[in-house]
Amino acid sequence: MFKKLIADSTAKSPWIYHINTGSCNGCDIELVAVLTPRYDAERFGFKLAGTPRHADIVVVSGPITTQSKERLIRTLAQVPEPKCVVSLGSCPRSCNVFKGSYSVEGPLENFVHVDVSVAGCTPKPEAVIEGLYKATEILKQKREAMKK
Amino acid sequence: MMQHFPVLAVMVLFLGAFLVEIFGSKSRLTRNIIALAAASLSFVFIAALVKPVMIDGQIISYWMGNWTPVEGYAIGIGYEIDQLNLFFALLVVLTFLLSGIYSIRYMEKDRHLGHYYTLYLMLSGGVLGLVLTGDMFNMFVMVEIMTFAAVALTAFRNNGRGALEAAFKYLVIGSIGSSMTLTGIALLYMQCHTLSMAQISAMLAKGLSPTGIMALALIFIGFGVKSFIVPFHAPAADAYAAAPTSISMIFSGMVNKAGVYGMIRIVYTVFQAMDLEPMSLLLVFLGTITMFIGVTMALAQHDFKRLLAFHSISQIGYVITAVGLGTALGITGGLFHAMNHTLFKGLLFLCAGAVLYRTGTTDLDKLGGLSKKMPKTAICFLVGAFSISGLPPFNGFASKWMVYQATYSKAVETGNFAYALVTVIAVVVSVMTLASFIKVTQAVFFGQLPESCENVTEVPLSMRIPMWIMSALCIFGGVCYGFVNKYLLAPATEAAINVSRYIDVMMGDGYAASYGVVDMTVAPAGFSYWDPLVWLVLFIVVLLAFCIVIVTGRNTRGEVLEAKPELVDPKYDTFFSGEESMHSHVGGSDLFWGFRTDWKGYFDFMQGMHSGIVNDYAIWAVTATGCAALFMFLFIH
Amino acid sequence: MTILKDLFYILVFPGALFAAVIGLLLAGIDRKVLARMQKRVGPPLRQPFYDFFKLMGKETIIPHAANKAAYLAAPVMSVASLMLMMLFIPIFGFSAFSGRADLIVLLYLITIPGVALIIGGSASGSPYAGIGISREMVTMMAYELPFIIVLLAVARKVGGSELCFSMQGIADWQAANGCALFHWALIPAAIAMLLVIPAEVGTQPFDVAEAETEICEGPLIEYSGAPLGLFKLATAIKMFVMTALFTALFLGGIRTGFVALDAVILVAICAVLTVLCMTLIHAVTARLKIEHLFKFYWTIVTGLALISLILVWLGL
Known about the structure:
By secondary structure, chain A is α/β, with parallel strands linked by helices. Chain A has helices spanning 2-12, 26-34, 66-77, 91-94, 125-145, and strands spanning 15-20, 47-48, 57-61, 64-65, 84-88, 104-106, 116-118.
């Protein structure tokens, strides 16, 4: 009985940790804007967490630069299971206009398995919310699949 | 047979001191055996007195050389053990016995240990003699033995920084105190032609002449210097920090209490001055500022033992405030807190000594994360820290609660708002004490381990046993405090109030009545007992419910993952915003920035006042004596 | 038979289960009303329940530098002592366990969750946690002073010349003499208590100890999974306990005689108080820095409490 309750709650209370790996800040502003009164993602339970240890969904924006690669991997390792990685914008998908630069390592998929990818430069707030919502569904599946 | 025990207890210690000096330099084993044997024998003698004195209510009187009073005049040195004496004597013997056990391993790296044990036995003998004697000049002699042994022991590690300087300051201020005491005793002798406390108190029952008032002021200040209340507290900080830790424990546990015992005996019994409102106000005032200054100075320290020294000063302030109220509840609370202070402060000093023994430093800025290497010491330290902060179910909570209720009840009875403020200040001081120990916990035991402490291990067993004994007593005092009250505190409080019985036992029945001694009227204790057992049972039930939920929910909950020490996995690193975890320990002087900023003016002023120059401290001491004498002359008729 | 009854009191009502459920409900009300004040829809009222169960299902990672025993014991101590406090706070005349020294027991029990948070944070071994616990301790020092003065003032007012520290006694006095709030000498004390509540609970503008953006959640930084869930539960129960304490001290005159109805009224009053002293202040202010917080409590709030104590002392 409690297993179902916990699995349902995992989908209804996703806490977000945002990592900026070299983005132009456009997607970061859109992510924070999603939490403002106009779009209000908090009605689905989304909340920004201050530390990766509290996070369920990790939202990564920006192409993965050389500087930030190591820090990204270290931070992602510190997130407890079940976790979900969302790549925000087209930079983590394909590096967008920064592709081929001397300091850009590559798309996010080269380093970590991406669960949801929200495309756009910048994606519309509605798209961001839909992407996050899909992430909660994947979280619920991951929780149900966990051994305990 | 029984009446010889007190003297034997003291004599065995002095004899042991001489024997250690003669035989001790030859073999370490002989020395340890003689010292521990002397301490244990003394402990046994005092413990054997518990049943007749505390439980059956006898008072033991012993005249040295059988020089009993002649025609109503006391000419011999008398030892009188009533419940109050025995209460303090029990604390004294327990402290020095545990310190002796601790010293075996703690002092092994020092040289000249023969001298150390000699001095330790002399110090113990001096303090024990002080609390057992019934003769004023004998009291002074014991005070002197205690002071000089203490000064020598402070300077024992004279290869370290500051030991000689600390000893010098202690010597100067201690001597000023002793001189005051001697002058006061001389004045009393001039007036009463006798030195027996029992007879003097009978003779002074009629009222205090100006000589008597001066004597009271001088002796009171003399003992105040010994217990290190403000404004005589400055050498204490240096002395406790510089002395070897087993001796610091004795200082804060025994020497302080000897001063407190002296004050209680002088004010309550000899001068019967507790009825006088000005005397009560003076004691409460001194106690309150001692509490407050002690704890605020402690918050600014970054040396472990110096911090503990300032806390000792602050807790003695609690005792003096409670004793100064003049109510039965106040005396009980003060005595209880004195006992608890010996226990938890001794425990804290032993933990500080353990840290110093293993890491070689007590600087809070250089330590950290030691709970991983010294877990048992950490647990004992937490017991001591929670006791001193007054958290239930430890003993500090019970005694502090008694003190708060005593002050607030007195406030309501007399209608004097100042006592309500004293209650508020006392509680705030308690919270600041908690803050200070959180700081030490974070700086020393939790947090990140510096590289210099990588090879630290737990302390040896003979050092852990005294710590465990004291922790157990702390918990026992908090949980079963009704038991403690019935067998230890209530008899002692009775004895402090009941002056005529004290006199009659020594000088013969009817003596007190013939001089018109009237027992003080003391407000009865109206104490709302909180029942710790009920509270504990409830807590345990809730915890059990938790345990059941935790155990049955094991399969539904998320897993608990813990790093194995060899495993290098960023998952188990500290979160540093993605950086590699480096050594960045927040402790010691980094903590409580907001508090220290707000109080910057006060702390700057205080730092200026505590200049470290002994001339300043001496001026404070003499000025305080003058002010006290003036106050007493003006207000006591 | 009485053991079963006592167990019911301890575990279900008014103890563990009741405190937890109502606490989480009040936390939900706080979030919802805050959202409405900001012209948003906001999370459903059940959101804290979802948060709690989600956290139960996450895995707990104990970092290298942490002391495992203190790390795991701290949240349990925190929640257990709060649940225990509910047993001593009367619900308009019904009190599960009452003695003669309840107020003092409560005063000490209230410091235990704060100390547990500090020990837990300290045991995590993170420098951010070190800063967080330093601020938490200074916050505790700041609000304890006015809180004590308020308790002393109420004890004196109720007891007269013999102080009354018993919660049941305070409830009875208020049933006889009307709510304590209506005696105008205690109004400054009530305002002071209303200002102490957000600092105790740790909501803005007094949440500098857990400043999310600045020191990454402070003492809770290394916590994850079930221990974190327990700490969040502790915060929620603390909201309920503090508002219930305020009701018992100042609004205790209402009494219908039916325990169930009294409980409902209590929850309603607690909800109103939560909105008044926590949500409203949260919505309109920014976070105070630690030195300003300390100064605020030791000047303004203490001043209000002292005014009340002096007025009560003078017999008014």
